[in-house]
Amino acid sequence: MTLPAERTFPRVSPGLLERARAALVEVLSPGQVRHDASTLENYAEDESDSGVYPPDLVVFPENTGQVSAVFRTCQALGVPFTPCGARSGKSGGSLPLLGGVAVSLERMNRILSVSAEDLTAVVQPGVITGDLMKAVEAQCLFYPPDPNSWEFCTMGGNVAENAGGPRALKYGVTRDYVIGLEWVLPSGEVVRVGRRTIKGVAGYDLVGLFVGSEGTLGVATEITLQLIPKPRHVKTALVIFDSVHTAAHAITAVLKAGILPRTLELIDDVALQAVDGRGFNFPAGAGSAVIAEVDGNMEEGLFAELAWLGEICEQQGAREVLVAQDESQREKLWAVRRVVSTALRSLRPHKISEDIAVPRSRIPDIILALKKMGEELGLPVATYGHAGDGNLHANILYEGPHQRALVETAIRRMLELTVSMGGTITGEHGVGHAKREYLAMEQAETVLELQRRLKGFFDPSGMLNPEKIFPAPKRS
Ligand SMILES: Cc1cc2nc3c(=O)[nH]c(=O)nc-3n(C[C@H](O)[C@H](O)[C@H](O)COP(=O)(O)OP(=O)(O)OC[C@H]3O[C@@H](n4cnc5c(N)ncnc54)[C@H](O)[C@@H]3O)c2cc1C
């Protein structure tokens, strides 16, 4: 996440708002339209730390027809409207920057079907990701995308951000599992795109376009997902290294050898220092760790695969390979990874976390370059995350607001280094509000303009989720 300077946008006039409130109560019900202070406060922020932008009204539609009616009402009156799910986003996508109407999809939270025969599930957008995972696993099916926020984020938010998680290394991200959508366009028109079959290539890939559109091209009101059979066994190991550089090289060596674990999560020296002793004591001299996890149906094969992975890591200089023998040991290893983000605050009171991604072969280079940058600027940098797929959470740790200018220099340099290595400024959290001013580092003006035109085609009035993703066009 990035800290853009808080900006002031024009607000909707009180008269127009009153007309909007009255019209929305007509198409919904009084209990579905709220503007009390505590509701507005709740919907003013997400997890991006990128500002506080309260809406003027929050509406809670309960079906597709109501979502459509809300959109039509806002369009007719010229009031901006912004969709939201659980507001766990880390790029400010759900922030109603211009105020207006926050459209919460939280009440549309039913799992409509799970089909073991077709290997599909159909869900409403407000379903919590973890609830879907549990429901399909009860039928021996598997929905692999696992953003670390799975216990509280929604499927609609996952679709909008094309969310990914540790298992993306082997199984891919949300886009790889969404095959069909019921979609309400900014005009209020309802369309069905995609399919219910596993294969299908008819027409343009509108599902591919809408997934990852960050709530700027319409909203998902029904999501059709493909599933896979649940692997019967999972085995996990913690591999200890003396330095992050050795660990990064070992990750590359494992993948090069032809092993595709379902996760390869890296913890660097700074992050390791922060988590050491919190439920797990690292051996003396440990300077980095990797959590490697493999899955499949044959348990013996998985132990053999982990042993092979361990040998490769040892050849690269690993000090120790600890294989979890049962579920409680496995849980203990994952607890180490889960606590990293909070534990970092024990080193410095503030942190900015960027979700950069680089081509896998550049992981050692980017880690070294970020450490060097941190030393030059006097700001510790902690790197951890999904190193197996090149997506790293690079955290700049700092003391307080007096270091803000320095932190902004560090963010810019970090993103420049990432792009210079063929990487991207965001591997999973999206651009939204937080990274809007950095997108031009990665994408040419012609590409930005093409996307602005797409947005203009779907939303000519620009009332849906305004001022997001794309920086203002350059004046010639
Ligand atoms: C502790 C923590 C860990 C996280 N870990 C990960 C991770 O591992 N991987 C990852 O990818 N992300 C992660 N995130 C970020 C976040 O959880 C994801 O981006 C998630 O997909 C957001 O879902 P949400 O329901 O909270 O959406 P919100 O934050 O409410 O909204 C996000 C965007 O989706 C749009 N939107 C919401 N609902 C719909 C809809 N039905 N149709 C269209 N657009 C819609 C909004 O307008 C907004 O632009 C993490 C966040 C936290 C706080």
Chain-wise SSE layout:
Elements: H1 14-27, E1 33-34, H2 37-42, E2 57-59, H3 64-77, E3 81-84, E4 101-104, E5 111-115, E6 120-123, H4 129-137, E7 141-142, H5 155-161, H6 168-171, E8 178-184, E9 190-194, H7 206-210, E10 219-226, E11 228-229, E12 233-241, H8 244-256, E13 263-267, H9 269-275, E14 288-296, H10 299-315, E15 320-323, H11 327-338, H12 340-343, E16 350-357, H13 363-377, E17 381-386, E18 391-398, H14 404-420, H15 439-442, H16 445-458
The structure holds flavin-adenine dinucleotide.
Amino-to-carboxy terminus distance: 30 Å
CATH class categorisation of the largest domain? Alpha Beta
The low-pLDDT segments are none
Number of helices: 16
Instruction: Report the average pLDDT across residues.
Output: 95
Tell me, what's the shape? Answer: globular
> What percent of the residues sit in helical stretches (DSSP H or I)?
25-40%
Number of strands: 18
The assigned structural class equals alpha+beta
**Rg result:** 23 Å
- CATH architectural type of the largest domain: 2-Layer Sandwich
Count of distinct structural domains: 4
Could you give a short account of the major beta sheet?
7 strands, antiparallel
Sheet with the most strands: spatial strand order = 15-12-14-13-17-18-16
Bound molecules: flavin-adenine dinucleotide
Which fold name is given in CATH as the topology of the largest domain?
A: Uridine Diphospho-n-acetylenolpyruvylglucosamine Reductase, domain 3
Instruction: Give the DSSP E fraction (strand runs of 2 or more residues).
Output: 15-25%
Oligomeric state of shown chains: single chain
